[in-house]
Amino acid sequence: MKLTMSQALVKFLDNQYVSFDGVETKFVDGIFGIFGHGCVVGLGQALEQGGHSLKFYQGHNEQGMAHAAMAFAKQSRRRRIIACTSSIGPGALNMVTACGTATANRIPLLVLPGDTFACRQPDPVLQQVEQTYNYTITSNDAFRAVCKYWDRVVRPEQLMTAAINAMRVLTDPAETGAVCLAMPQDVEGEAFDYPDYFLQKRVWYIDRRIPTAREISEAVQMIKSAEKPLMIVGGGVTYSDAWDTAAAFAEKYDIPIGETQAGKGNIPWDFPLNLGGIGVTGGAAANALSKETDLIISVGTRLTDFTTASKWGFQNPSVRMLSINVSSFDAFKMDAFSVIADAKQGLEAIDEALAGSYKAAWGGRIAEVKGSYTTEVDRNYSVELENALSQTRALGEINKFMDGNDIVVGSAGSLPGCLQRLWRSTKPGTYHVEYGFSCMGYEICGALGVKLAQPDREVYTMCGDGSFLMLHSELYTAVMENMKINVMLFDNQGWGCIENLQNNQGTPTFGTRFQARNPETGFLDGDLVPIDFAKIAEGYGCKAYSVSNVDELKAALVDAKKQTVPCLFDIKVAHKSMSDGYDAWWRVGVAEVSESPTVQAAYADLQANIKKARLY
User: Fold this and answer.
1) What pLDDT, in 10s, does the model give residues 307-323?
2) Structural domain harbouring 187
3) pTM metric for this prediction
């Protein structure tokens, strides 16, 4: 079939399917785009021409639309995607951040940025970056560092190998992340006789990787020789649909569970063995037992510094690591014995081999720490401040109001910490927090993507004022698409999370609150600069609420349930009213030399904690 490269790409994407556990799903739902000269007459023409079932979504910031696409894929458990296209130069580069977010979180994201002319005849074209040392480099080479697969299609027939390799990576649980196919704008419009077999329906099988007998035998011996194992549930449990398997395994062998951000919400918060979040943004229960355990069973987690407390959280000198992960790269971290397998298959195989012949020796310790921490969460949710609303109280009211099927979204700042420590989820798929990249600005974009994936459910995104100021353009997209999302904007007039870090490491507040420049001092230590975020939202066509106390919050939540347009809650919360940490260390780069006694003390504390942490 004689088609332009862009027309062939559209037909190809429209015919891609995935099969998981025998269920076949159309993989590409549509394409997000902001048209410019680098894509409007190429891919834009192909989309407008029709003859396909791909839906076109109009983005309003390239990073924002790509984050929405990533959230769509994450909420769809990596079995559906929305591709993204942009013009060249700044439009393309705006998507680099989103690609980093997707790759860090192991989420499939396909970006199709326009590129300069392959023929070079009109060079330099509008928005072209020229490098004197290498003429082949364009802005799109910036994607190489943040993508799992990168290609530039400089001839129309090259699309075939590029597209197949893109799909190979996008549908591989161990390799998935961002994929970039850079498209020179002249090649987008060039024609080729594409063979039928390239354009026909293609099914990609997401098969469950099965562990080897050797791996299972060793894993069983490690568990049997442990007295107090602790299981860490990560994102691999989510994408493997292994939440029931993990809960049953824990219950059968009396093994407590700690949750990562990506794994949280799979197992109900009130399940007796679920101790909640673990690590830097974890709670007191999981962090207490992490120091006592002699075997960590990590299931589908990357073991980031927030989960391991910078490899400080596991204090038992006899502790060993057992990792079940479909990715060998992740499975070998922290010198773990690795079971390279799908989370569900790995747990089931170990369970079959153990055959119920084991019980952990925690005794009443699990119930003790869980009961104590449940009381602590209740306390956070009921904090009373004079003439002010605390962040934890506001979260508690929202948590109690939301239906069990409603979805909470978050990403950066102090809110993910409060959510991992305090949020009470009861059903899988209701906790959606991006914390692999902790990307400010994801919150509203992510809420849109989640709503596009599950339009029949209420979506509440927890967004700080700093994140809102960075990126909220897709709030307008939500209005256009008639996607009702609820933006819970917590305004503490600054970057409170980083201010806390700054203060805790000995430095007074500097550059982290939203203060005007003081003409007397020359610094940003003048009056706080207030913003009426509700008015901004109203300008977009949203329903907005101004909230400064519990009664106003409760009334707004009830009223928002009746609305059909996006809603924004401008919640004014007290300064430094977020949750505290619970005995976990996070390594940051403290100044080795300083005139400040508090910074000197922080550096001494850093050195002491390094001695307690594992080196790798």
Assistant:
1) 999 999 999 999 999 99
2) 2-205
3) 0.97
